[in-house]
Design a protein that fits this description.
Layout: E1 3-7, H1 27-32, E2 47-50, E3 72-83, E4 89-105, E5 113-114, E6 117-118, E7 121-126, E8 130-132, E9 155-156, H2 162-177, E10 190-192, H3 203-221, E11 224-227, E12 237-241, E13 244-252, E14 259-260, H4 264-275, E15 282-289, E16 297-305, E17 308-311, E18 317-320
Parallel strand pairs: 1-3, 10-14, 10-18, 13-15
Antiparallel strand pairs: 1-9, 2-7, 3-4, 4-7, 4-8, 5-6, 11-12, 12-13, 15-16, 16-17, 17-18
Length: about 325
């Protein structure tokens, strides 16, 4: 599988405009305040679309094994790198199984506009094969000064270059050994917990999203028999269905990706539902995406097998990824 190194500006999330970016030596972001790579890790309909600034708007896919008349090449591993303010260049994430286009693709991908301008791409990959390393964890340095190294180039073809061969082998081993989550949450399964997708930290916004999700769940499932939101028992609402109590934990999202986190109480209830220890009724996880829009989507997940949960409405499957955390004070 060919490998391509793409050097972009430093951002925390690459899912839209951010205040905290570092342009390094890139002229366009310095002039405009953003780079077109700002959406590189924003899944749209199960795909991430990546941009890298090139002088000509063209990637030499012949160097990746394409024929001269090919317009794209598939199954490329794309390693994204960026400069730190403190100095140095580091791996920020990667696409596996990517399609690399020879020429800049404008496309009409929903949501990829900024200041009225459509943002194009040169690379695309299934979102569940795209991984973004959390900003604080980006410590895999990239050698870039010297013969046979990337230098100032935004696009670099590392294979066959002896000077970077050792680093490349280590980088590919690092990628294969990665045990953190991918950010691809819309295709190939969702994720409960994980990092690489930024939750909205505005309390008022979160409260509004959650209330819309609660209202939509009531609309979808009918009259509630109990509201347990203040009880901190691990679920929010109870309904009566076929003579059984349906205990529903409700999560709301303003975006389209199914990606939620659970509190310890909520995860305990979910784990009991998996191991047969949930005795209050039938446990379900309701996830309402696009909660603030008129076309919101309602998902109702029931445990299927192992770490897999199946939506009774859409047939979508998600998987649970446990995280370990700590709070010091």
């Amino acid at each position: 599988m060919p490998v391509l190194l793409c050097h972009v500006i430093w951002m925390n999330h690459y899912r839209g405009p951010e205040d905290d970016i570092y342009a390094g030596g890139f002229d366009y972001p310095q002039e405009h305040g953003f780079g077109h790579e700002l959406f590189n890790f924003m899944p749209v309909n199960g795909t991430c679309y990546g941009y890298v600034q090139t002088r000509t708007g063209i990637i030499n896919i012949d160097s990746l094994g394409a024929d001269g008349d090919d317009t794209f090449i598939d199954d490329v591993t794309v390693i994204w790198t960026a400069p730190k303010k403190e100095g140095g260049r580091y791996v920020v994430g990667w696409y596996k199984g990517a399609r690399v286009h020879r020429q800049f693709e404008q496309g009409r991908v929903r949501g990829r506009t900024v200041e009225g301008e459509r943002v194009g791409y040169l690379i695309e990959a299934p979102a569940d094969q795209c991984t973004l390393i959390a900003a604080d964890d980006r410590d895999f340095a990239v050698p870039h000064h010297g013969p046979g190294l990337p230098g100032t180039a935004s696009v670099f073809y590392p294979e066959g270059k002896a000077q970077i061969a050792g680093w490349l082998a280590n980088a590919l081993a690092f990628i294969e050994a990665w045990d953190g989550p991918a950010i691809g949450l819309e295709q190939g399964g969702g994720l409960v917990g994980g990092k690489g997708w930024p939750p909205n930290t505005d309390p008022a916004h979160r409260a509004l999203v959650e209330q819309h999700a609660i209202d939509e769940t009531k609309r979808q499932l009918g009259d509630i028999t109990a509201d347990r939101q203040e009880a901190c028992c691990g679920w929010d609402l109870e309904f009566l269905r076929d003579g059984r109590t349906l205990c529903v934990e409700v999560k709301g999202l303003s975006g389209a990706e199914v990606a939620v986190e659970l509190t310890p109480n909520e995860y305990t209830a979910m784990a009991q539902a998996v191991n047969g220890g949930f005795l209050e009724g039938d446990y379900r996880l309701a996830v309402v995406t696009r909660a603030l829009e008129d076309n919101r989507v309602f998902h109702l997940f029931a445990h299927e097998v192992a770490d897999t949960w199946l939506c009774e409405r859409t047939g979508r499957r998600i998987k649970v990824k446990e995280r370990t955390g700590a709070r010091l004070g």
